[in-house]
Amino acid sequence: MSADLFDPTRPDILKPSHAARELGLKRGDFDRAVQFGCIRTVPDEGGGGGRRVERAEIERVRAQEGFPDSLLNRVRVVGTAEGAALMEIPAGRFTRLARLGLLVPAAFYLNRYRAVVWLYLAEELRQFATGAENAHLLKGRTPETLRGRLAAGVDLRARNWRGRHLGFALRRAEDPWARAGAVAAFLSPDDVADVVKDPYERAQLNRSRPAPPGQGAPGSPATHAAERITTAQDADEIGWLRSELARLVEEARSVSPAARPAARAIRPVIRRVPRPIPPMARTVTGPAEATTRSPKPTAAPPGPEGSSSEPTQRLTEPAARTAEPSARPTGPTARPGEPEVRHFEPMSATRPAVRPAAPAAPRGHGPAQPGPRRSPRGLRAWLRRRSPRRTEPARA
């Protein structure tokens, strides 16, 4: 809503509440005067969706003869009891005439017992009572045809109210979509969806339809009762509203199509060409595999003292490393090029002997070589090792 509507420099456009105070009317009387065409309104230029009253229209209404009593008499509404007293007939006859559709309600509300209370224009009741063609309906016996319809349970009060307010909404509509929305307001959502298949056109109808009469909070019993009154119930009424809605939607579609979201350009999906997996890099077990191979003994120069002990020590070094890969050396580490000195602890009864494990076969280098044969275990093998072998006498 634009801010210039409330700017004091523009006093020619007034809100409905301000206009009602200027005319000295209650808000309900002002709204009925707008509905019945006694006060003309203009659309809200700020985009708020409401109605406004020009200063010139207020001056015109004030200049009428007998203002404000003349205006109040035109918009005055009465209930069943007051209307029957005004027409000088019993209340029961008044209700029968209203159910037959001869008296058209102008408004309704729900009392504290959730009963619908119909209100009628006092000026229309006076005109009906003073008409010579209606004298047989006010006195004497009700005609047989009308009594038969009453016995069948006919009640046209809600239908007549819908017809009257549909005329109000169509007169206030400014564009084809507003006229179509006024018709759709009196149909159920299923009927509207059956006639208008396009969801964007249905959204346009919902934005253009007039606000329902406020009778309570959403979902309350009063709101449900108001929905039953404002929704068409008879088959012929529903059929006429559906055909009228289809005609108005076709007209609105040709004048100004419903707003739709802008089409977005979808970028093509660029798929990457799969690349071959590169060969696996050399793992950390590569250097260890080289150490598992037994190096060939190198010929050492002959010496006087145990020349064969150094090659034997070099051969047993890889096997010791393979047997205990996770054990940390407790002594000083030998320098490169020097033989490693290993300290062996004496075997005790409480600590089991650690046997060197067989070297693992390298991966991808042919079939695994058989490891050294394990010595037999058990009591029998131990006894065999401990007992001396028998020597047989030499045969002559």
Account of the protein in words:
It is a single chain. Helix 2 (27-35) packs across helix 4 (69-75) and helix 5 (80-87) packs across helix 6 (91-99). A three-stranded antiparallel sheet has the order 1-3-2. Strands 4-6-5 form a three-stranded antiparallel sheet. The chain is elongated. 14% of the residues are buried. Residues 1-9, 300-332 and 346-350 have low confidence and may be disordered. It has 396 residues and is mainly alpha-helical. It contains 18 helices and six strands.
Q: What brief labels describe this structure?
A:
396 residues; mainly alpha; three-stranded antiparallel beta sheet; 6 strands; elongated; disordered N terminus
Write the layout of secondary structure elements.
Layout lengths: L12 E2 L1 H8 L3 H9 L6 E2 L7 E4 H8 L6 H7 L1 E2 L1 H8 L3 H9 L7 E4 L5 E6 H9 L4 H4 L5 H8 L5 H16 L3 H9 L4 H7 L3 H10 L12 H10 L4 H21 L29 H8 L16 H15 L55 H8 L10
Antiparallel strand pairs: 1-3, 2-3, 4-6, 5-6
Number of helices: 18
Our measurement of the CA-to-CA distance between the termini, rounded to an integer number of angstroms, reads 137 Å
Mean pLDDT: 76
* Assembly annotation: single chain
Biggest sheet record: 3 strands, antiparallel
Secondary structure category:
mainly alpha
Poorly predicted regions are 1-9, 300-332, 346-350
**What is the strand tally?**
6
Calculate Rg over CA atoms. Answer: 54 Å
Strand content: 5-15%
Q: Tell me the strand order in the biggest sheet.
A: 1-3-2
Helical fraction: 40-55%
Elements, N to C (H/E):
EHHEEHHEHHEEHHHHHHHHHHHH
Shape: elongated
